[in-house]
């Protein structure tokens, strides 16, 4: 009988290498899982805190009235001057609820209001102009006879009679000290509405009709 001999391949006598079982990779995953779980919990917690903060901020915000544009002191408030905003307020801050916006229309600004300012009841007044014993006179003033600085409601000014073109005043020029109610610029003329005692209103109206008036700004203090 012939004995069949099989050729040995090189290295066939070396012991077999251990093969990693299916549980090996699973073991490393188990080692990483706690870290991933902690990170996931931190992300969820951060999201929950952020969501709670946003909810708390929104739920505590109030809708209040604010100035939409700049409003001068003494100016009559119109609906176009106002808007509503939602803000979180300090309880000590006095504001006007957004639902009361219409009730402010027609009142006067007791102080200058800048656009974006939250309206306080103290910043508005129901005092009507002119009051008893006072008159409002409209005075058109030519360009060049009004200071280049802004003239605003509440400013104290002097209206001074000017001479005729090329002429001289034969007497002491009429001068009226008064308070500005409002200003309208219609280039090249500036129309200034002023508040004067009723006894001086006629003289000032006559002067305004001549067109010979210069405006002197004495005080812009509020």
Write structural notes for this entry.
- This protein starts with 22 loop residues before the first helix and ends with a strand.
- A hairpin with a 2-residue loop joins strand 7 and strand 8 (189-197).
- It has a 5-stranded antiparallel beta sheet, with helices on one face. It has a two-stranded antiparallel ribbon with strand order 1-2.
- The protein is elongated, with a radius of gyration of 41 Å.
- 25% of the residues lie in helices and 27% in strands.
- Mean pLDDT is 78; it is low at 1-5 and 23-27.
- It folds into 3 domains: 27-60; 62-125, Type Iii Antifreeze Protein Isoform Hplc 12 (Alpha-Beta Complex); 134-219, no CATH class.
- The chain has 222 residues and is of the alpha+beta class.
Gyration radius over CA: 41 Å
Residue share in helices?
Answer: 10-25%
According to DSSP, the number of beta strands is 9
Structural class: alpha+beta
Low-confidence stretches: 1-5, 23-27
Instruction: Quote the average pLDDT.
Output: 78
Can you summarize this structure?
This protein is of the alpha+beta class. The protein has helices at residues 23-60, 101-104, 198-210, and strands spanning 62-67, 82-87, 108-109, 124-125, 134-142, 156-161, 175-186, 189-197, 213-219.
Chain-wise SSE layout:
Layout (H helix, E strand, L loop, with lengths): L22 H38 L1 E6 L14 E6 L13 H4 L3 E2 L14 E2 L8 E9 L13 E6 L13 E12 L2 E9 H13 L2 E7 L3
Antiparallel strand pairs: 1-2, 3-4, 5-8, 6-7, 6-9, 7-8
């Amino acid at each position: 009988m012939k004995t069949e001999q099989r050729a040995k391949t090189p290295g066939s006598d070396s012991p077999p290498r251990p093969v990693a079982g299916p549980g090996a990779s699973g073991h490393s995953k188990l080692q990483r899982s706690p870290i991933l779980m902690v990170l996931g919990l931190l992300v969820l917690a951060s999201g929950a805190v952020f969501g709670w903060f946003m909810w708390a901020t929104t739920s505590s915000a109030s809708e209040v009235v604010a100035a939409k544009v700049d409003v001068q002191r003494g100016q009559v408030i119109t609906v176009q001057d106002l808007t509503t905003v939602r803000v979180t307020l300090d309880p000590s801050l006095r504001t006007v609820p957004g639902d009361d916006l219409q009730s402010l229309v027609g009142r006067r600004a007791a102080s200058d209001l800048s656009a974006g300012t939250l309206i306080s009841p103290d910043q508005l007044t129901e005092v009507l102009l002119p009051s008893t014993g006072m008159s409002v006179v409209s005075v058109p003033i030519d360009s060049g006879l009004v200071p280049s600085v802004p003239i605003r409601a509440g400013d104290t000014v002097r209206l001074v009679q000017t001479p005729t073109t090329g002429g001289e005043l034969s007497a002491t020029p009429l001068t009226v000290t008064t308070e500005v109610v409002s200003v309208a610029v219609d280039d090249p003329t500036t129309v200034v509405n002023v508040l004067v005692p009723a006894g001086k209103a006629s003289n000032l109206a006559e002067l305004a009709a001549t067109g010979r008036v210069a405006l002197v700004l004495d005080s812009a203090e509020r």
